[in-house]
Amino acid sequence: MSATQLTFLPPIDEKEVRNTIIRELKRYKALKVQLENRKEREAAGMNNLFPQLRDQHSLNELKVCQMDRALKQSLDDDELRIIKAKYLSPQKIKDIEIYMEMGLKKDKYYQVKRRAIYNLATALGII
Description:
It contains six helices and no strands.
């Protein structure tokens, strides 16, 4: 019996999962800054410093909270290091730079990166 015969779940489009997680990680960076800025404005008593076109404070705060939890609790150290370096760093860093710095072989790096993306997607309920 092959592994595909034992699978009860529908197949997952790996590219779609990866693109969704990357998009959410990039949005997470902006939402985290938005949350910090809002708290800073509230503390200074300046709630209307910038015009608001959308009012999604509670939704955005929940997304940040859940992404924080997913990053901290669903990834091991290497997975978290890769995700932070690749997607949450202010600089654009190439994969080769990350795996060289981490002392990982190319195949192992991509295996860990793929596992990190799937763990995040699972923790966030995307898959």
